[in-house]
Amino acid sequence: MSITLDQVTKYYAGAPVVNDVSLDIGDGEFFVLLGPSGSGKSTLLRAIAGLAAVDHGRIALQGRDVTHVAARKRGVGLVFQNYALFRHMTVADNIEFALRVRRMRARKRRARRQELLRLVALEGLDDRLPAELSGGQQQRVAVARALAHKPEVLLLDEPFGALDAKIREELRRTIREVQRELGITTVLVTHDQEEAFAMADRIGIMNLGRLLEIGAPNELYSRPQTRFVATFLGAANLILARRTPDGIQVGAATVPTADQGPGTREHEVVAVVRPEEIELAATREALTTGYLARGTVDEVVFSGALESIRVRLSDGAQAPLLAYSNGNVTPCLQVTRTQPERRSFGVRPGQSVAIGVRRVHVLPTPLSSFTACAPSTEQAEALAHAPLLGELAARMKTRIVTRAEPGLGLGDAPCEGAGSFVGTTVIAASPDTAQRSEWLLRCGAKDLLVLPASAPAPQRVLIHWLGEPARTATLAVSASVLRHFAAEAVYVGIVAGSSGSQRPRGMRALLDARSEARAVHGLEMRTELRFGDAAQELAQRLAEAPAQMLIVGVSDLDRFAERFGALLDGGRWPVLIVYRSAP
Amino acid sequence: MSFRQPSVLPGFGLTLGFTTFFLSAIVLLPLAALVAAAGSMHAKDLLHVVLSARAIGSYKLSFGASLLAASINLVFGFVIAWTLTRYEFPGRKLIDALIDMPFALPTAVSGIALTTVFAQNGWIGRYLEPLGIKVAYTWLGVTVALTLISMPFSVRALQPALLEVQRDLEDAAETLGATRLYAFRRIILPTVLPALLTGFTLSFARAVGEYGSVIFIAGNLPMKTEITPLLIVIHLEEFDYQGAAALGLVMLLMSFAVLLTINLLQAWGRRRLVRTGR
């Protein structure tokens, strides 16, 4: 492996800007770190270069641990967005800088310089000053300069950012050719997905300091695992669908999926429908694909090869529970069509159309939508407007519905819609939270979020489960929550009894939890070991610092209110309870 | 070549007129008067005044202390400007504002304050005394006063230049294998050199002309701690206007010579840079 990152973390003003990133980049690989601005990708690149010290974790280049090695001894070449050429030096002096530092003979220096200038197609410009070159030429000089000392790794920090489109494409090709010719391991940082697609062998997508997904471009595009990747990489319609024994039920359509197991429990899922996978026709009968719903054309934008259309779903269509696009929850679908499609069925704004879907991809995320639940409708409405819940829903690009449950808080009252809980149920914290939680869980709620009034966004999320049946689900839910907050994840292992004799067993449990979280759920987490009663230890740990949240898995409801009273009642922290009983 | 440069702002004729008028009225005419006053002397008298041992002693002190003060500011002004532009720390804005204090303070106040601190029983002076170092009433005191009042010039000249040296340049040098010292010598210093020289020039010019603060701390012993501006004032108080003008003329010529040298050096440096670039 050329570059190995192991749980690399960097804090800025107390918040993690690079959060537990682990990554292996192979020899000669062209790896692209893609993410929006502020996602931590540039900081990660600077950490690899040695220009930013990491607060936690390890960095190795060619198997050599360089975590505490100075940048000048790491053997990396770095190219900056603004070129960072030495303006008082000629092109030749710029390129030879690294060689001069290494006291190379003048003749050998000149030979190396000629070779590099040929490589970046700038022969004969040796004696120019950077100010006399165009932006594209300057960046070529910067690339040649970064390669002069034959680094093992080439790092490019948004190298095309300051260039116009045409030059950008040309330089992109040059860099790709140089990279292939030299076979040098390269990491490019960009926020431009088109650039990432064009250059990468593999792409790693970052958001909020976490490395969310890694994969080949087409793999990430067609089978994203997270909401963020689905919407960041190309356009996507996110739809709340139901997984049924026959397939994925999206609106009126049921699309069979490959991974359909016979024993799958029916539940709500988040489906991704790419704009190009949607078909429009005049009537339901004219569709060649599964019918989704009827809609009205809102807007048609012509953009050369493709035509993009916004279709508003008709009110009567109870079908797609929700479609999400561009930061707002709207009942609109994005559709793109090719010219042949446009010619066979032209549309204009205001027209009523039938909508069909060709292909649906289901995200494995366990958190689909939120249901704010309270004894009365007014209270449920108020809860739905809680800032933290609103924030979470907005980041997850999902919706919040309300539900009045008059039996909530009455103790042993029977619940009305038993078993019909959809998505994550949310209740406000109260003096008898534990009892209310038990009541809802017995009613059929699976994931239950207890929200104190005015809880801040969590900076640390503690994870724990009681009972093995809840393990997988707890990890999956934790991974999903942590993708949406710049918080650190800590698995708290708790062993009953005194510390001495139980320590080895506890440590083993921690390692198991950590490796499962990483392998199966793509979640990097720290671990802690404590001794004593689970609920008590968790309450104690939560009291230690502000802005913490707890995700706790439970597998049986026996004496639930009694066991968790100390943890839940009074509502000092947000707690997400994941309940999965043994089958 | 056209005399007139195209500009978006109209009124070239008017503004050039104002420029020449003001320069003439407040710079050239007084200087001409100075030259005329000195020129009305007999050559022998003139030489007698400007080459007297007392006058030569004062030139040495004035120009020597000013060059020393400007050199001190070259180094410490750089450090201060570097700290203020590169680091974010509590109180940075306050320190940045304090830099300008010597501008705003009446120079006599600076002089009295310095004397209080550096006198034999002053806050700092009392600790220097046992070491045999006397500051107040020696040439050292003169240098301290000149350093203080000319310090803002070198800091303010450097700050914008240092802001322009991007962090990236140092980072690039570091990834290419340069040590910090090497990067400083080969990258940062060449980039800010023009600003350094400008700061030096301004500091020096300010120090040479200083009067108010120095006379309080210098002690004003003829031949030892007497600066040329003070000698001029002494001549004036004796109603020897011509003698004063003669000394003034010498100061004018020497200052001009120093400033011209620095400017030529700067221009030569720029040319050399461009030539090696070709």
> How much helicity do the residues of chain B have?
over 70%
Name of the CATH homologous superfamily of chain B:
MetI-like
Write down the domain tally of chain B. 1
Shape of chain B: globular
- The average pLDDT score of chain B comes to 86
Number of strands of chain B: 0
Derived structural class of chain A: alpha/beta
Oligomer description: heterodimer
CATH third-level topology of chain B? MetI-like fold
The radius of gyration over CA of chain A amounts to 27 Å
Looking at the overall shape, the CATH architecture of chain B is: Orthogonal Bundle
Largest sheet of chain B: none
Percent of residues in beta strands of chain B: under 5%
| Number of H- or I-type helical stretches of chain B | 13
* CA-based gyration radius of chain B: 22 Å
Widest sheet, order of strands of chain A? 24-23-25-26-31-30-27-28-29
Approximate shape of chain A: flat
What do these coordinates show?
By secondary structure, chain A is α/β, with parallel strands linked by helices. Chain A is 30% helix and 32% strand. Chain A contains 16 helices and 31 strands. In chain A, the strands form five sheets. Chain A has a nine-stranded mixed sheet with strand order 24-23-25-26-31-30-27-28-29, with helices on both faces. In chain A, strands 11, 12, 13, 14, 18, 19 and 22 form a seven-stranded antiparallel sheet that branches. Chain A has a six-stranded mixed sheet with strand order 6-7-8-3-9-10, with helices on both faces. In chain A, helix 5 (165-182) links the parallel strand 7 (153-157) and strand 8. In chain A, helix 2 (91-101) packs across helix 3 (106-119) and helix 12 (433-443) packs across helix 16. Chain A is flat, with a radius of gyration of 27 Å. Chain B has helices spanning 12-39, 43-50, 53-86, 92-98, 101-104, 107-118, 125-128, 139-164, 167-175, 180-209, 212-218, 228-237, 241-277. Helix content of chain B is 78%, strand content 0%. The radius of gyration of chain B is 22 Å and the shape is globular. With 278 residues, chain B is mainly alpha-helical. Chain B has one domain: Orthogonal Bundle (MetI-like fold), CATH 1.10.3720. The interface between A and B is medium-sized, with 30 and 22 residues.
